[in-house]
Amino acid sequence: MPRLPVAILGATGAVGQKFVALLAEHPWFEIVQLSASADRVGRRYGDVVRWRETTPLPPELARIVMTEAVPTGAARLAFSALDAAVAREVEPAFARAGALVVSNASAFRMAADVPLLIPEVNADHLALLDTQRRVRGWSGGIIANPNCSTAILITALAPLHRAFGVRRLTVATLQAASGAGYPGVPSLDLLDNVIPWIGGEEEKLAEETRKLLGTLEETVVRAAPITASVMVHRVPVTDGHMVSASVEFQTAPSVDDALQALRAFRGSERVAGLPTSPLPPIEVEMRDDRPQTRLDRDRGMGMAVTVGRVRPCPVGHLRFTALGHNLVRGAAGAAVQNAELLVAAGYA
Ligand code: NAP
After folding, report:
1. Which residues, other chains included, contact 342 with Cβ-Cβ below 8 Å and sequence gap of 6+?
2. How remote is the CA of residue 81 from the centroid of ligand 1, in Å?
3. Are both 13 and 122 inside the same structural domain?
4. Burial (0-12, 13-18, 19+ Cβ within 10 Å), 250
5. 233 and 167, same structural domain?
């Protein structure tokens, strides 16, 4: 089968580079367009990118000449790693021109007709794409993956929500430097330090949680009635976001019931068969001092979420800690898996 031609928008950034690394050998997708800001246009990718991936940049990709972030017709699918303000203009232009945009940006995540997806959790929400195309008159479309911390939290929370119904949630995050992009937070602000603020992040975690765990009712998603109190922190690690949560449920589970639900969690057969889907999506690690960022972030090629420290909570019913790779499960890997779902579902 010929590979589907794809573009990467924002290819020089932290997420964009992870896209290039993940797609270099992808069985279904072939990179034909790379774009970034105007300064890079007309120059070769290998000459403008400050490559921070640990795998070498393949020479055939290094030779690609950068274009503006505009639809050229070469790509049928566009992976967007653009800042939200840029994405707000660029992504609809691609969708209008007939391309499917798989976005990391927050620009359209909460739009009622845009599927916000974690394939193992809510693949059925992809049906919103039909409404979007009808209402907006686009032959392409936009689908989005969640904010990086939300992706990790919700992968862990979804099986517990399905089994016991989440009512209230208190969450504290410990987020890696690469979550702020490249070059991101100045090293002198972050080394030997913790910063208890990331602009807009607490609101995103709360509202995206309600959409992701919501129920598809014909052409709309009814938000899950979950009250969330979120506290975010930027910490001096390179990659990997940790999320600690206290959860109150409709039906209080025992620790054993919760562990069983976490261990048994799988996406649908279609989702489990996608090249980027980790099996299992959740790895339960109940050693006392795990998960740890450096030791556990690369599990399942960066797509698995590690959950540990599951224990009773005197405030909610249960506490746990979840960890995942922010650039893979939280960004580029999530988008590649979403694009694979588009193909498997016949949209691309
Ligand atoms: P980043 O490192 O700052 O990269 C931004 C990219 O956008 C760069 O390639 C930049 O190109 C390009 N760009 C900037 N202005 C542009 C313009 N006017 N036209 C075309 N391209 C332009 O940011 P990032 O961390 O990769 O994040 C990218 C997006 O993903 C953001 O929306 C972010 O919120 C989201 N996200 C990030 C993470 C994460 O863990 N980092 C996780 C989930 C979602 P130049 O190099 O030429 O400036």
Report:
1. 77, 100, 102, 126, 143, 348
2. 5
3. yes
4. exposed
5. yes
Together in a domain, 170 and 304: yes
| 147 three-class SS | coil
Q: Which amino acid is at 166?
A: V
Residue showing tokens 């970034």: 36
- 138 and 203, same structural domain? no
Residue 108 domain boundaries: 4-147+332-344
* Its pTM surpasses 0.85: yes
Gap between the Cα atoms of 173 and 194, Å rounded: 11
- Specify the residue with its C-alpha closest to ligand 1, atom 11: 36
Residues 101 and 28: beta-carbon distance below 8 Å: no
- Looking at the fold, whether 176 and 122 belong to one and the same domain comes out as no
Tell me the pLDDT tens digit for each residue of 231-281: 999 999 999 999 999 999 999 999 999 999 999 999 999 999 999 999 999
CB 19 within 8 A of CB 78: no
To test the pocket of ligand 1, the residue of 9, 12, 15, 237 to mutate (highest count of ligand atoms within 8 Å of its CB) is 15
Confidence of residue 1 (pLDDT cuts 50, 70, 90): confident
Q: Whose CA is nearest to atom 46 of ligand 1?
A: 12
Q: pLDDT tens for residues 94-126? A: 999 999 999 999 999 999 999 999 999 999 999
How many distinct structural domains can be found in the chain? 2
For residue 5, give the amino acid letter. P
